Amino acid sequence: MPEATAKRFLVAGVTCDGGEYNPANVKKYPPSMYFPIPHAEDGSSPTTFRLPSAVYAEFIESFFEHELEATEGFLDAPLLDALIVKLKTYVAGKQS
User: Looking at the domain covering 8-95, what would its CATH class be?
Assistant: First the structure.
C-alpha cells in the first residue's frame, strides 16, 4: 500500500526508565508529563506491565502501520480514555 493512503497510528511512548521510574519522584517525573500505568511484578495487571511505568506526554508520534512492532503492554478502553483526557490537558496547557 502506498504510504499516501496507508493507515497511520498515534503511539504514546511508555517508559520504565530502565526500572528506575518512581511516580513519587515528582522532580524527575512531573505528574503533568508522566502518567502512571498500572503494573504488577507477576504480570497479573491487565496492562501486562511488570515494572512501574508511565506514558511520557512528550513522546507522542505518528507511525505507519508497517513501522509498528509488537511490544509489551495493553491499555483497556477506560484507561485509554483517561489517558486521552490527560494528554489533551497537557497539550492545552502547552498551547496557552
Answer: mainly beta
